[in-house]
Specification:
Shape of chain A: globular
Largest interface: A-B, 27 and 27 residues
Oligomer: homodimer
CATH architecture of the largest domain in chain A: 3-Layer(aba) Sandwich
Structural class of chain A: alpha/beta
Strand content of chain A: 15-25%
Chain lengths: 331, 331
């Protein structure tokens, strides 16, 4: 991938989990990287995520809802990795308007800015498997009906479709990756707002049992963050991706109880317990889910490379070392 | 339908085309009807639409984006016919944020108000066949993938899904009707913002040729407004409708050139001409479209009753008599 050398790259959500890992790789490839992040405490941004590359990137703290700031930052960029979002399903139900403002309205505003001020930019949008809702069949491919089960899913879908529409109607090159469960160093582990794996890892390191909801039989697939970064990078460079939606996914399908078992085996004294489903989560639970990712494999040659066990080991090792940067033991 | 007697009914878009016809029927059934309309000049509201029932309804001029006004108006209502919307596909592309505010954000706000202040209300939402995009197959049933081709389609879909979500998660009873081309007395005929049939009828009455885009071979189905009103009324009363989406449609499928021919035959001196597709319309054109409406026929017993020719006659007769209330001949 020579093309990122000296490329001007903007990453929204750049201090977040995936954005910071993407930034690290892009810096290594010689790109000129600007990171936008709102640093809203409940979201994924954490300045420590980029401490090792802090002198090699430009950081601009602002919200993607700040249309004037975004218009300035979008100028002259070659690539936009559009990763910022409100990701909590529960928060989207208690404060739906904020979710709409960030995940739909701000996306539309960003695209309008690109249309008016930088139509040559290439955009990769981070979408989510959440918008398939409860699957009709498994594995879920891109032809599966979309059927969001929460406000977050509806707004993310609107945000994704604005991108495809601007590609199709205005030629603003854009594509969307529908991410499944992504994990790895840099994820939010303070609580379960970003992924339940986060709080599991915190609990494990703090010597508390992991809590598995229900019988733990629900199936999921997981991508280690390095593999997701690779997918973002190949999608941005490929003309074949323009106007397309691609699932990410993994061939390693595991039950949540099985995943908990894999984790606790890696931590002396680790344990998990099955607890009944909290009512507010049960109502938006989607049952089993795993992706068919043949489309991106065939079109862009992407497939995940990191075995789940290895990815979990790396993640645990990272948080064992750096946990003070991710949570306050007193809270 | 006894159940509307003394029922407290709120209609958003109540001075508009479908809202005003619905209001007339509800008043005749003894309902206590409140009409909300923004009267934005570019939209469908027209006070003349309800002149004959003005003393029998409550009119409240305000915008559905006015959350406090809506919260007051929703209190104590039994039924909400939620018909207000920005309907122009072209306007949604030139001013996407306004389309989002009305068709998505205001809908979410209305549903939040219902959840907090009137969870027992029943809502019927007017959705659109536009969100199927360019059909994969015909006739289009409710299982057809949704694939909006413009900003309006994306935002209308979000608005529809919020309704279904609030039904499924919170038990706020709601359903959505996906309307196809609706026509009849009360539609906007000043221009093509609401339906191309509007400007066709104006042109016909003004003695100008109708303009048919392209070769006029595109197939469409049409519902006379009385049939749509009937569908709204049965959907509101039926528990089987809760949480469901239903297509409306017609078994009379016609090409646009054929439709123009039907219209001009009813007006002495009427004529039409084929003109090439304007670029801004071509890019969001969806080709042939007609609906499969078996789902609502089987679940609610609805089917359209007004033959196209008869509906067109009634529409032409209405505007021949009342055109001064719908357009200024000098503009």
């Amino acid at each position: 991938m020579k093309s990122y050398e000296n490329a001007k790259v903007l990453i929204t959500g750049g201090l977040g989990f995936i954005g910071s890992n993407l930034a690290r790789t892009l810096v290594a490839k010689g790109a000129d990287v600007t990171l936008v992040d709102s640093l809203i405490p409940q979201y994924g941004g954490n300045a420590f995520n980029i401490e090792d590359i802090r002198q090699r990137v430009t950081v601009n703290v602002c919200d993607v809802r700040d249309a004037f700031a975004m218009a300035y930052l979008i100028q002259g960029k070659d690539y936009l990795f559009n990763l910022a979002g409100q990701t909590s399903h529960l928060d989207s139900m208690t404060d739906p308007q904020t979710d709409l403002d960030i995940n739909a309205a701000a996306q539309l505003s960003i695209l309008e800015t690109c249309r008016k001020a930088n139509p040559g930019i290439k955009i990769v949008f981070a979408s989510t498997r959440q918008l398939y809702g409860r699957p009709d069949y498994l594995p879920v491919d891109e032809d599966h009906p979309v059927r969001p089960v929460d406000v977050n899913g509806i707004n993310k879908l609107a945000g994704e479709w604005y991108h495809l529409l601007y590609n199709n109607v205005y030629g603003i090159r854009a594509c969307a990756l529908r991410l499944t469960n992504t994990y790895g160093p840099g994820m939010r582990v303070k609580d379960a707002r970003q992924t339940f794996l986060g709080i599991w890892i915190r609990n494990l390191i703090e010597g508390k049992p992991l809590q598995v909801f229900g019988d733990g039989a629900q199936l999921r697939d997981f991508n280690y963050v390095d593999d997701v970064v690779e997918a973002l990078l190949v999608a941005a460079l490929s003309e074949m991706a323009d106007g397309q939606v691609f699932n990410l996914g993994s061939s390693e399908i595991v039950g949540l109880k099985q995943l908990a078992q894999m984790l606790v085996e890696q931590q002396p004294g680790g344990s998990y317990q099955l607890v009944s489903f909290p009512a507010d989560r049960k109502v938006i639970d989607i049952g089993d889910y795993y992706s068919d990712f043949n489309k991106i494999r065939q079109a862009l040659g992407w497939e995940p490379k990191t075995p789940l066990k290895q990815g979990l080991q790396k993640s645990l090792a990272y948080y064992a070392q750096h946990h003070k940067q991710y949570w306050d033991a007193d809270k």
